[in-house]
Amino acid sequence: MSRILNAPVETVWRLWTDPELVTEWWGPEDYTSPSASIDLREGGSYVFSMRAPDDQGGAESFTGGVYTKIVPLERLEFTQSITDADGEPLPADQLPEGFSQGIRTSVEFAALDGLTELTITERGWSRSLMSVFAYAGMHQSLDKLTTDVLRRITALAG
Fold it and tell me: What is the average pLDDT across 140-154?
């Protein structure tokens, strides 16, 4: 998926690499992200939490993985799995049906005259309903990033 964001690359990079900012946009519509931890180095790990709304049970889940390549202000590559709160991938018998672990993800940041083209590629999904939910969830997360967080940060900077 790809989006053009009305912000410079430096701002969009911070939104992906500052744990306090990640908690403001991570997760689909109506979900919150109570916590995020990031060890931003190749071989470093991250864990982002996501809490469902109360009318959907209010359960908290975690996404985590390892950074495999970092090119500052240009590219992040990492794995994604459903994990426990400490970042340990959950065993197969604790996963939603059809969920793939160890998804290889890249996020590319390209400067376009003060704007940023953000391109996200995920590899390793099995064809399942969960892959559709994950795709929709990432779009909804980016909607939150664009409409809420990015506007607020831009207003503070200006």
Answer: 77
Prediction pTM value = 0.87
DSSP string of 44-66?
Answer: -EEEEEEE--GGGT--EEEEEEE
CB 25 within 8 A of CB 149: yes
Predicted confidence (pLDDT) per residue in 65-85, tens digit: 999 999 999 999 999 999 999
Q: Is 131 exposed, middle or buried (0-12, 13-18, 19+ CB in 10 A)?
A: middle
The ranges assigned to domains in the chain are 2-157
Q: Is 103 helix (H, G, I), strand (E, B) or coil?
A: strand
Which of 49, 21, 22, 54 has the alpha carbon at shortest distance from 34?
49
CATH T-level fold of 2-157 = Alpha-D-Glucose-1,6-Bisphosphate; Chain A, domain 4 (3.30.530)
| φ/ψ bin of 101: left (φ > 0), alpha (ψ from -120 to 50), beta (otherwise) | beta
Using the structure block, give the residue that is written with the tokens 């998926």: 1
Distance CA 77, CA 126 (A): 20
Please report where in the chains the tokens 């306090």 appear, as a residue.
Answer: 20
Write down the H helix ranges in 3-108.
9-17, 19-22
